Amino acid sequence: MKKHYPISVNKNGVEPLYIQVFEELKKLIEIGTLKENEKLPSIRELSKSIGVNNVTVVNAYKMLEQEGLVYSKVGSGTFVRGNGTVKQEIGVKREYKINEDIKINLSNSMPNPNYFPVEEFKNVINEVLDRDGGFAFTYQEPKGYFPLRESLREYSREIGIETNINDINIISGAQQGIDIISKTLLKFGDNVVVECPTYTGAVAVFRSRGANVIEVPIERDGINLEVLEDVVKKNKIKLLYIMTNFQNPTGYTYSEDTKLSLIYLANKYGFYIIEDDYMSELRFYGENTLPIKSIDKNNRVIYLKSFSKIFMPGLRLGYIISPNNMSMDIQSVKYSTDISTSGLMQRAFDLYLRKRLWHKHINFLVEKYKDKYDFVVEYIKENADFIDFIEPKGGINIWCRTDMDSSIYASLLKDEGITIAPGSAFYLDEINTNYFRISFGTCSKEELKFALDKMGEVYFRSKKGNIFNFI
Known about the structure:
Blueprint: H1 17-30, H2 43-50, H3 54-66, E1 70-73, E2 77-80, H4 83-86, E3 104-105, H5 118-132, H6 146-158, E4 168-171, H7 174-185, E5 191-196, H8 200-208, E6 212-219, E7 222-223, H9 225-234, E8 237-242, H10 256-269, E9 272-277, E10 301-306, E11 318-321, H11 327-338, H12 343-354, H13 357-383, E12 388-389, E13 397-401, H14 406-415, E14 418-419, E15 421-422, E16 435-439, H15 445-463
Parallel strand pairs: 3-14, 5-6, 5-8, 8-9, 9-10
Antiparallel strand pairs: 1-2, 4-11, 6-7, 10-11, 12-13, 13-16, 15-16
Helix pairs in contact: 1-3, 2-3, 5-12, 6-12, 7-8, 7-11, 9-10, 13-15
């Protein structure tokens, strides 16, 4: 007896049928209805079962494979890769999970919980509850709580962005923002350019929409413009995804010349730029650089900002500034995604901004993280000359290189209770590379010193051919 798959599609809906089939199958994998290594029905069988054509199922299966949910065997069919891996957070591929054997985690690019402004934010929440009562728990309009959007317009002006309040949409973090923008703009087969290396959580979203993702190398002053122009000449590009400040994972910051050139190329070739503002507030040295959105005169840049990355990850709050001709489409997609972001959190963060507590907290974070940054940079220079790196001047990540494969190095370090993020995790094809990322945000100086010393021990032991630390 053939297995029944509870898949339904709306042939009159706005969403393309292949996307609907993809999302239905993805859900069945995530909840465990489709088991690890279980064979999916043949293309003909599934298309007949749900009343769609074969091409629809082919495209849905391609999207599942691109997102790493299934694998295919020539002559045998398509099989579920395993729902255990599906439930892992989209982001760094082969994420090194914390367990009791891990002493120090340098792979986790997260803020330090000890720096969260718990008391201040609790007081703000209480003030909102006293002020608004039950209204604090009502749904906000899809674009977000209007006073918060007013506050974010003023905040944006401080970083050089002039915008209409109607072009601001509140979102539940950067990942949702990327997903909303992708659903708004991308169709199956569209081309998206990303930096190489890059944040692979964004890549997973683009691929889930059926997009072709093209890598262009990033250099110290930003994406390689010569390679990029060659790509956009040969391909019709829909989106370019970039981080202009302290790019993840490299820590590179775009020069003003590079940003101007990108605006020129976007206007000339008609593509949009997603600017993911990643930790731009955490600058320790040099002048603050303005977002590329601040020089966008022709509505080619979509500005994306998450406050979760440096504030409190659980807050899940951010915003999009979109071109005015795109604002309503983004609002519609946001509404269909989750109706609205937490009303209480929006009201609380609005008050937090209006009281200038955000600015006070950023000054506190810059002081704390700069102290750690200075320690790590100087310690590597003085005690770990086997590591090459470029000083990013801000952020909580350092992009490093040795003369050994970083995946092997990461594996050896993990055995010693230390985790780093191997460079292969930030490339589309998981290539072998000598680069790796260390993140110092959650560690004390003592832990950082211990970890860097242990990294030296492991490195030199491996160079001598003594891979294992025999007792």
